[in-house]
Design brief:
Layout lengths: L13 H18 L2 H5 L9 E15 L11 E18 L2 E13 L15 E13 L7 E8 L21 E8 L6 E9 L22 E8 L3
């Protein structure tokens, strides 16, 4: 049984909890005046936008043990995720998107928080960072995105950013899209899945022993075909 809820939680690792509370304080401090940063005169286009997204999730599992199965064992822990985003639009058809993320787990037993890849923890790190360019012509949308980004293709059964995982999933690569969402569209991409390494600031591409993480991912899709 997995119970998901937003709740206050007493962390067992006091030092880590103190650091996290400090980070949340900074996050909230940034989030409150975020709208003011983006305010401009009515006839001037927005250039910079800042956003924040704090999230807490408690999980309780019966007959389960992180690291290995164990009948009769119960796990109860807190997952925290905090994100700060910045969008800079220096031109009407170009923008830069930066997103930092802090993901942690408290009260767990039997896992290595420094393991790579990691679905539970990744202290303050670059989550996304890409350049987006709009090449649209007339009513036909044409977009190019270069950098660290998320892929959610089709029904997301094979390719998804896995937002339900605490660290989520991103790729380093290039993506080209033609068409409007919900209609017939064409997408082409070349990328590599980014392994979450809690010991690195930018999550590099060292060998992990995971065939999915260590593989390149590229292809082309035509959506909405009948």
């Amino acid at each position: 049984m997995v119970a998901t809820m937003c709740a206050e939680f007493q962390a067992v690792e006091d030092l880590k909890h103190m650091n996290y509370c400090t980070f949340l304080t900074v996050l909230i401090t940034v989030a409150v005046p975020a709208s003011a940063i983006a305010q401009t005169a009515s006839n001037v286009e927005k250039v910079v936008e800042v956003g924040a997204s704090p999230h807490l999730r408690s999980e309780i599992k019966d007959d389960f043990k992180l690291g290995s199965a164990a009948v009769g064992n119960d796990e109860q822990y807190l997952l925290s995720q905090a994100r700060i985003t910045l969008t800079w639009s220096p031109a009407s058809r170009a923008s830069v998107f930066i997103e930092v993320q802090d993901a942690r787990i408290f009260g767990e037993e039997g896992i290595n928080e420094d393991a790579t890849p990691n679905i539970f923890a990744d202290d303050l790190d670059l989550h996304q960072g890409y350049l987006a360019i709009d090449f649209s012509s007339g009513s036909l949308p044409v977009d190019l995105k270069v950098g660290r980004q998320k892929f959610n293709l089709g029904a997301q059964r094979l390719v998804s950013s896995l937002e339900w995982v605490n660290t989520a999933r991103v790729w380093d690569g290039v993506r080209f899209d033609v068409g409007r969402s919900g209609e017939r569209t064409f997408s082409a991409f070349a990328s590599r899945l980014v392994p979450v390494d809690p010991t690195e600031l930018l999550n590099g591409h060292g060998v992990t022993g995971n065939r999915l993480v260590d593989s390149y991912f590229y292809g082309a899709l035509l959506h909405g075909c009948r």
